[in-house]
From TrEMBL:
This is GNAT family N-acetyltransferase. The lineage of its organism: Bacteria, Bacillati, Actinomycetota, Actinomycetes, Kitasatosporales. Acetyl-CoA binds at V90, T91, V92, R98, R99, G100, L101, L102, T103. Keywords: Acyltransferase, Transferase. GO terms for molecular function: aminoglycoside N-acetyltransferase activity. The active site is at Y131 (proton donor), F421 (proton acceptor). Pfam families: Acetyltransf_17 (PF17668), Acetyltransf_9 (PF13527), SCP2_2 (PF13530). InterPro entries: Acetyltransf_17, Acetyltransferase_Eis, Acyl_CoA_acyltransferase, Eis_dom, GNAT_dom, NAcTrfase_Eis, SCP2_sterol-bd_dom_sf. Residues 10-161 form the N-acetyltransferase domain. Homohexamer; trimer of dimers. NCBIfam families: PRK01346.1-4 (NF002367).
Length: 421
């Protein structure tokens, strides 16, 4: 593995164990948090980072930029997991911005991911304009609704699901036992979902608490179907707002809600919207086509209060990415994929049907020319090639090719990535 040559006299390289505290300080500085570094954080990082995948830029021995990646699995359309290079903790200290340090760290990491055989790289972008230039495209979107419970039209006498299932309050121990298996089932049916490690469950149930990140123990509920199978799990916290007239005006904020059946999804949303005293429910990050508004007799009670790009994907291997997913339509498409970084561009013939896709290099004339970032936005099924063509971001080399691409690549339900990393 060769490093991108230094143009600035600043070293970009994997950090050593001894450099972890300085790297944490630089990371805090880049994210505009207090530069103070605690022993607890050093211990936590020492346990959880892979040094060879934790990059720093060093100017006169001081860390001035940070970058970290780790192994992740991303669910493709149809439920197969593809190996992903998850990028996180990207910072460049303000004194060293716009000197190409991010560019060098990214080139180093993506080259290593390609060499390892990862199919895609993923990240969550702090700001939209940063990562398109590196071949990433937004592949999932998140919507947050705020439900005005007083106008949902829900029956105030609702006292649990009427399908034979039940909703039970559980505690963090139960969640750590039941959650991982439920999430594994979700991963097999929901494209866009990423794997959750044991550490994720510990962090998100308060077993691991990081300095500077306050923890409020949430309420946890599970939905069990009539046969006792756990099909859904929700975690929510409540504030303590009361009106001046001493009336409870509580907002419930959903931290996590995963369900593997529509019955579980329905029961958990109706439960959260029916807790006495709760007048407002904040949904947290949901897919834009989440059922929530339409589960309410009056969907206008659910107002969209945030909408933003979610998971960004960088395809590292076009052939394996297109062969990993399934297709709702049948047809053939020749794609000219432009990748200025030279990691995976070329001309590919995609033959798709209900049995899967085959993708082979070809010299046939292209139907559609598109950048590798645009392919990422289409790959998870969310974006429309017709829309991108209207924006001038994909070129039709054959009239009607964008419609064919939509018939093959788009999915009935939108992808969703509920997690932060
Ligand atoms: C996955 C995550 O961790 S997301 C978190 C990202 N981190 C942050 O937002 C923390 C605050 N910001 C920073 O640390 C830095 O500004 C970074 C990491 C965003 C950019 O680092 P830099 O070293 O300045 O980037 P670099 O010099 O390599 O810039 C490469 C190109 O991207 C452009 N660019 C970089 N950041 C931005 C931005 N925020 N908005 C628009 N363009 C940007 C540069 O102008 C440059 O363009 P050019 O090639 O046309 O000249």
């Amino acid at each position: 593995m060769t490093f991108v040559p230094a143009r600035t006299g600043i070293d970009v390289r994997p950090i050593t164990e001894a450099e972890i505290p300085d790297w944490i300080r630089a990371r805090h500085t880049g994210f505009l948090r207090s530069p103070e570094v605690s022993e607890a954080e050093i211990a936590d990082r020492s346990r959880n980072i892979v040094l060879s995948r934790t990059l720093g830029a060093f100017d006169a021995g001081r860390c001035v930029a940070t970058f970290r990646s780790f192994a992740q699995e991303l669910t493709a359309v149809g439920g197969a997991a593809v190996p992903a290079d998850a990028v996180s903790n990207v910072t460049v200290t303000a004194t060293h911005r716009r000197r190409g340090l991010l560019t060098r760290m990214m080139a180093h990491d993506l080259a290593a991911a390609k060499e390892r055989g990862d199919v895609v790289a993923t990240l969550l972008a702090a700001e939209y304009p940063i990562y398109g230039r590196f071949g990433f495209g937004p592949a999932t979107w998140n919507t947050e609704w705020t439900v005005d419970v007083t106008r949902t039209g829900l029956d105030p006498r609702w006292s649990g699901p009427e399908d034979g299932g039940r909703v039970d309050l559980v505690d963090g121990d139960d969640v750590r036992k039941l959650g991982p298996e439920l999430h594994e089932r979700l991963r097999r049916i929901q494209h866009g979902v990423i794997d959750r490690s044991e550490y994720w469950w510990q962090l998100n149930t308060g077993v691991v608490r990081l300095p500077g990140t306050p923890w409020t123990e949430p309420f946890y509920v599970v939905y069990r179907a009539a046969d006792g199978t756990v099909e859904g799990l929700a975690a929510y916290v409540c504030d303590e707002t009361w009106s001046e007239a001493k009336q409870p005006r509580i907002t419930a904020t959903v931290k996590d809600l995963i369900a593997v059946t529509p019955a579980a999804e329905r029961a958990l949303w109706l439960y959260v919207c029916s807790v006495d005293w709760v007048v407002r429910v904040k949904s947290g990050r949901r897919a834009p086509d989440d059922l929530l508004p339409l589960l309410l007799p009056d969907p206008r009670a659910a107002a969209v209060t945030a909408q933003a790009d979610g998971l960004w994907v960088r395809i590292l291997d076009v052939r394996r990415a297109l062969e990993a997913r399934t297709y709702e339509g049948t047809g053939t498409l020749v794609l000219e994929v432009v990748d200025p970084a030279g990691l995976t561009g070329g001309r590919f013939r995609l033959q798709a049907s209900a049995d899967g896709g085959s993708c082979t290099p070809t010299t046939e004339g292209a139907d559609l020319t598109l950048g590798v970032g645009e392919l990422a936005t289409l790959w998870l099924g969310d974006e429309s090639a017709v829309r991108l063509a209207a924006l001038g971001r994909v070129q039709e080399e054959r009239a009607g090719a964008a419609r064919v691409a939509d018939a093959l690549l788009r999915t009935s339900r939108r992808p969703w990535c509920p997690d932060l990393f």
